[in-house]
What we know:
By secondary structure, the protein is mainly beta. Helices cover 8% and strands 47% of the residues. The chain is built from two helices and 19 strands. A hairpin with a 2-residue loop joins strand 1 and strand 2. The longest helix has 12 residues. The protein starts with a helix and ends with a strand.
Amino acid sequence: MKKYFLYSLTLCFMMLGFVACSEDEEFTDSRLTYYMKFEMQGPDTLMCPVGTPYVDPGCTATLAGKDVTANIVTEGVEDVDFNKPGLYEVTYSGVGSDGFTSSVTRVVIVYDPAVNEDIAGDYVTVDGTMRIKEGASSEYPGFKVKITKIAPGVFYVDDLLGGYYAQGVYPQYGDLTALKGFVWLHEDMSITGLTGFNAGFKDSFDAVNGSYNKETGELGWTTDYAGMQFVVVLGTK
């Protein structure tokens, strides 16, 4: 899928062996470079019920032990739509002693308390799970998928591709090639993707759409990803 994926992984692991620095300082060209050190007020992940205006708790910062909170640049607060369930990010950034920028990010989850169904659990892909590429399909039942409840209607999925790469094509790299992400379970039991990221391929999905039948327990979705469709049908282990 990605031509240089395996080479990139090898290079990444090699580079990790040579990089090390503390949270707010490092040696650069024989000088001590200081980065802004942040401390978010409130939790890193903040829950906000839909319809309730979002009030950002803020953040403080120091640079070489001095308070530089006034120099923080805050972005994303205005993008939090408290009338629409979803995941939003608020980023605090600042410039250090030698012009280097550092930042921290808070995740804001706007959730709908009216959604009381819980689809969290350990699942396995069943018959009907397939990858569709250029009209050709290949099935892959028997792979594990874990869903975790984050807030009412908001769930974390450990692989929106149903384990196709992480457990099938590249098992030697484990969940590095899994498309981890969040989905939103609506009141009508439809499912849509909120956000996701594949660390191995460094990309995300184009769309996630599915449904949950609370009478039969049927659960599944289709992930549009990299020009392909991954139809994920789940059953209990």
